[in-house]
Amino acid sequence: MAEAHQAVGFRPSMTSDGAEVELSAPVLQEIYLSGLRSWKRHLSRFWNDFLTGVFPASPLSWLFLFSAIQLAWFLQLDPSLGLMEKIKELLPDWGGQHHRLRGILAAALFASCLWGALIFTLHVALRLLLSYHGWLLEPHGAMSSPTKTWLALVRIFSGRKTMLFSYQRSLPRQPVPSVQDTVRKYLESVRPILSDEDFDWTSVLAQEFLRLQASLLQWYLQLKSWWASNYVSDWWEEFVYLRSRHSLMVNSNYYMMDFLYVTPTPVQAARAGNAVHALLLYRHRLNRQEILPTLLMGMRPLCSAQYEKIFNTTRIPGIPKDHIRHLRDSRHVAVFHRGRFFRVGTHSQSGLLSPRALEQQFQRILDDPSPACPQEEHLAALTAAPRDVWAQVRSSLKIQAEDALEAVEGAAFFVSLDSEPAGLTREDPAASLDAYARALLAGRGHDRWFDKSFTLIVFSNGKLGLSVEHSWADCPISGHMWEFTLATECFQLGYSADGHCKGHPEPSLPQPQRLHWDLPEKIRLSISLALRGAKTLSGNIDCHVFPFSHFGKSFIKRCHLSSDSFIQVALQLAHFRDRGEFCLTYESTMTRLFLEGRTETVRSCTREACNFVRAMEDKEKTEPQRRALFRLAVEKHQALLKAAMSGQGVDRHLFALYIVSQFLHLRSPFLDQVHSEQWPLATSQIPVQQIHLFDVHNYPDYVSSGGGFGPADDHGYGVSYIFMGDDTITFHISSKKSSTKTDSHRLGQHIEDALLDVASLFQDGQRPKPRCRGLQEEDSGHRGGSLPCHRRGSRAPTKSTNF
What we know:
Elements: H1 3-9, H2 24-44, H3 46-52, H4 59-74, H5 83-90, H6 99-130, H7 145-158, H8 179-190, H9 196-212, H10 214-227, H11 233-242, E1 254-257, H12 268-287, E2 295-296, E3 300-301, E4 313-316, E5 323-326, E6 332-337, E7 340-345, E8 347-348, E9 351-352, H13 355-367, H14 387-400, H15 402-409, E10 414-417, H16 429-441, E11 454-458, E12 464-468, H17 475-493, E13 513-514, H18 521-539, E14 541-548, H19 553-558, H20 563-579, E15 585-590, E16 599-603, H21 607-617, H22 623-645, H23 651-663, H24 669-675, E17 681-685, E18 707-709, E19 717-724, E20 728-736, H25 744-760
Parallel strand pairs: 6-10, 10-11, 15-17, 17-19
Antiparallel strand pairs: 1-12, 1-18, 2-3, 4-5, 6-7, 7-13, 8-9, 11-12, 14-20, 15-16, 19-20
Helix pairs in contact: 2-10, 4-6, 5-6, 6-7, 8-9, 9-24, 10-23, 12-13, 12-17, 14-15, 20-21, 20-22, 20-25, 21-22, 23-24
Domain Carnitine O-palmitoyltransferase N-terminal: 1-47
Pfam family, one: Carn_acyltransf
Main location: other
């Protein structure tokens, strides 16, 4: 989600000395280390490999094979065609009385070899099958005979019982696209936004690059793709995230919201208790691999590698780069409330604490009257400071307060018990949602530990939210966890009639441990400076959230169009009306069809989209003409999206080529120009991945309202959206108040108008009406966005029939 800002701002730190004959040494060494890191990750997952490395067979299948061989031997049949006799001859001679034992050992060795060969064959067959992407390029709703045959074979070779990491060893590696194709697609993507003169100059640079440098850089990428698990993902993590020196707050983190219209309980401690318990249940299922692998369109498994670092993970600041610290286990959470830090154990001798016991612990913290120590209240502002500054201060802090720092960084995750309410209010719904988004994205600058993989935020009125650090994984991973958490804490765990967690308190539990920080004067000064910077950054962010309730996914499907492409083309129209020009547009999509794949960029501002926008602004164009141009723009976007998902995108390939050129100290004006591009419009769709956990028809209010991120450019917008059920789309828009060119509320109004204008093309010129009337704003200064409909009749389902 927030990766566009990081992608623009990264600066690889390379050395510049060395003779020409030695220039290739650093990149070869880096490629070697990339492969080494890949193999280390495989070895560190030995237990997972034992359970899933034999997939699609199982350990029991070995026993079955061994038993069958023994039975055949007993019946005086030799299925090995004499191989077992050869094996017996190679075994030591322990005497006549052990002749029977040698036969059993020979059968076991033969069974193991045969079993391993069969498993290897199955792995290779499944990997070849998963390398087929023809199904992705077919029209939606249509399936050719080859694809039906492919799907049947995938299901046969996949076996019956799959676990989270079952497919990992069968996933294909991400291919390195043709450099000629990548450059051609790049030139096509920038043509709509460049003048004729600028485009001609860019084309000259591109041809020079292809002629002089491309083949050498491509050779190194091919070499890396053969040796490492993924030719780009580890460099993407390192150079885009870990080497970034910007503040994590706003620039890199993103947020996830609670249910929009309902709050299951107003009791803050109870909501925290159920949410923490649900998160730890998810971690338990994750450790046992009981989470099913995600299947794209119900057919194709996606890479699950990013799930490993959801919990017990912290981004540790360093110079010149950070590193990710992941622990195997952690049995406590770190809690922040009114400037104080606490360590709360999550397990007793009998196992995971019940939701009611966790509620009791959080209530003890809320009732604790002790004040914060000097500067302790603002200590977490250091995690929002530039990374070099925080790295230097942390070195001193680790000496002065090692135990307290370890309790925070070694926690399963961070919990912030906010003293203020948040969420939708009847009095001023638009302003309240905007404030809710700002609170989740930045807070007050000192009440989130931005280094943790995620911070669970519980507001005083029981509203929830997440603030997520981006380097360890992408939004669909945290979104999957968040969907499970909301569904579990509300539908499965539930609350009593008085709003408390079900069950009984445990008075014998020890009190939460208050963490103490010994902060010398030097660190206190750094805290003050970090707080000032964090408040400046958080005060400059302009967030706007609005649910669009005129139509949703069901209407778009009735038009026989892709939902995501529909929104992306409409966003081009809205942005053009807002700024009066076209711009580079960043849409994030996933490449998890491949082993350790992360994301790719879809450049949504296409020539076809621009033609449609011009037609919408041209009064002489007829509705059939506009509708035809809109369909062409949607089809073009779909083609780009599918190409990016299948590893044939533009930006990750150009990024990897640029990194290799930096290692080789080989300057390329073309790659320099690509790297210097800005993204005035960064967009992302938040997918709903576990629709079976929610009953959107009977309980439409109990659906996550998505989340958002900061803008990628100082004069640009960040826009995310989520389809809530079939008839609502929630938009999250961000920009910077310091820019005179942007206004999040103004863009929100343009988005609403653009969606209605596009929809009217498919309804004989009639704009769709909202499903229900939104509450009117009291403050007329807030512009844009259809207002939410407050549904008072909906109640949470009381049965866990969805689980």
